[in-house]
């Protein structure tokens, strides 16, 4: 195999992911490795897509959102993909900010309850 291809095992190691995850990403058409018999080899395109998939998951996007976003590049090109990305990012930022506010409120409430309980113990 040419140097630009990496094996299934190398792909798992590079992205610290399980074989099951890679097979699933292939099943749902996020990745399309080159096959040689039962062996799978990943081109730079799949490596780049895997980087984007992991980044998208870290940001809280669903696999379906990531799949649709990646399809835009193939169907409509980079500029349209950028427009969609900005809309997705804005929506996700709003959601993350909402979750952050909830966490801050929960932490504040928990600290208050803990402090009140400590005062009861201290008498």
Explain this structure.
- The protein has 123 residues and is mainly alpha-helical.
- The protein is built from five helices and three strands; from the N terminus they run βααββααα.
- The chain has helices spanning 8-15, 19-27, 44-58, 63-76, 78-122; strands spanning 6-7, 34-36, 39-42.
- A three-stranded antiparallel beta sheet has the order 1-3-2.
- α3 (44-58) packs across α4 and α4 (63-76) packs antiparallel against α5.
- The longest helix has 45 residues, at 78-122.
- It is elongated, with a radius of gyration of 22 Å.
- The mean pLDDT is 93.
Tag the structure with descriptive keywords.
3-stranded antiparallel β-sheet, elongated
- Characterize the biggest β-sheet: 3 strands, antiparallel
Which value, in Å, is the CA radius of gyration? 22 Å
Structural class: mainly alpha
Give the count of helical stretches.
5
Shape: elongated
Oligomer: single chain
Q: Into which percent range does the helicity of residues fall?
A: over 70%
Order of helices and strands: EHHEEHHH
């Amino acid at each position: 195999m040419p140097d630009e291809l990496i094996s299934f095992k190398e792909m798992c190691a590079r992205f610290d992911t399980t074989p099951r995850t890679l097979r699933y990403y292939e099943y749902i058409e996020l990745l399309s490795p080159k096959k040689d018999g039962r062996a799978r080899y990943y081109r730079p395109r799949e490596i780049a897509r895997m980087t984007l998939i992991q980044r998208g998951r870290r940001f809280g996007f669903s696999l379906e959102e990531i799949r649709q976003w990646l399809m835009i590049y193939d169907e409509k090109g980079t500029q349209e993909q950028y427009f969609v990305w900005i809309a997705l990012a804005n929506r996700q930022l709003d959601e993350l900010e909402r979750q952050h506010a909830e966490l801050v409120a929960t932490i504040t409430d928990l600290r208050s309850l803990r402090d009140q309980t400590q005062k009861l113990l201290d008498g």
